[in-house]
Amino acid sequence: MENKRQEDFNIKNENRQTLLVSLQAHTIGKLLLWMAFGLTITHAVCMVTWYMDMLPFDDRLYISFFDLDEEESLGTWFSTLILFLAGILSLFQARYAGKPRQRMHVFWWLLGIGFCLLSLDEIAGFHEFVNTVSSDTHWTTYGVMLVFVTGFVLLPFLRSLPTRTQLQFLIAGAVYVGGAIGVEWATIWYEENDQLDTLAYNLWNALEEFMEMTGVILYIYAVLTHITDNRQGVHIHIQHS
Fold first, then answer.
1. Within 10 A of 86 (CB to CB), how many other CB atoms are there?
2. What mean pLDDT value characterizes the chain?
3. How far apart are CA 91 and CA 87, in angstroms?
4. Which of 29, 126, 151, 238 has an alpha carbon within 20 to 30 A of 2's alpha carbon?
5. Domain segments of the chain: what residues?
């Protein structure tokens, strides 16, 4: 009888833990998306008011903090943060997945390291350095090749995931690549014709950055829900004060 009560308690506690993690995934994803949306709208408003001479000052320094294209800005900090968070979650899952019968944990390690490098690139600007070194070829050309190679390498890993996680990863990747490479490629004309300091380019930049941030956030949500769905061995302690 006592064992039956303990088993019922464990089941109820496990359900509460699962609900808690699910709520956290939904809440975190929703919060991050609202933050990304807010940063994008703020950027767009600042650019429109700046280029239409609607501001009471003539020094762009006052709005550069909200410029998503500036390295020293709130948007860059946020992008760096969520990329790093995506990397840490992937590395956590790699540690958990590195158990007997789960041979795909090495791909989680690769994803974790990859996102951490992207986080570093957000500050260091490695892709911009590629443009400096290879002036005849834009970095997006190498980016497309890297996407195809990465997709080919990760294909067995993706096929091993549950269907819902597969779909979430594909959507997240498509949104991120569409912004990072697709929109970036569409704005090469502005760079080649010295039109970077224009309203049109800066609005394109808003779309690019929003898609990148959204893609990363969707990945974070996908990993959190995947951890929830495969919670065996993951212990969540809930204590009453």
1. 26
2. 82
3. 6
4. 238
5. 2-229
Confidence (pLDDT) at 130: 62
Instruction: Quote the CA–CA distance of 179 and 185 in Å, as a whole number.
Output: 9
Closest CA to 230 of 182, 160, 167: 160
Is residue 168 within 8 A of residue 221, CB to CB? The reply is: yes
Predicted pLDDT at 107? 92
Whether 208 contacts 183, CB under 8 Å: yes
pLDDT at 124: 76
Residue pointed to by tokens 């808003």: 206
What distance in Å separates the CA atoms of residue 205 and residue 179, rounded to the nearest whole number?
A: 9
Pick the closest to residue 209 from 90, 81, 86, 78 (CA basis): 78
**Gap between the Cα atoms of 112 and 2, Å rounded:** 44
Residue located via tokens 């990072």: 180
Supply 66's token pair: 């909200």
Place of tokens 């992008």: 79
Residue predicted with more confidence, 152 or 239 = 152
Residues near 38 by Cβ (< 8 Å), separated by ≥ 6?
Answer: none
Q: Where are the beta strands (DSSP E) in the chain?
A: none
For 115-149, what is each residue's pLDDT tens digit? Answer: 999 999 888 766 666 656 666 667 777 778 888 99
Q: Give the Cα separation of 111 and 114 in Å (integer).
A: 5
Pick from 61, 74, 67: which is nearest to 46 by CA? 67
pTM beyond cutoff 0.85? no
Question: What is the rounded distance in angstroms from the CA atom of residue 211 to the CA atom of residue 202?
Answer: 14
Question: Are the C-beta atoms of residues 66 and 49 closer than 8 Å to each other?
Answer: no
Closest CA to 236 of 4, 19, 3: 19
Joined tokens for residue 85: 């968070």
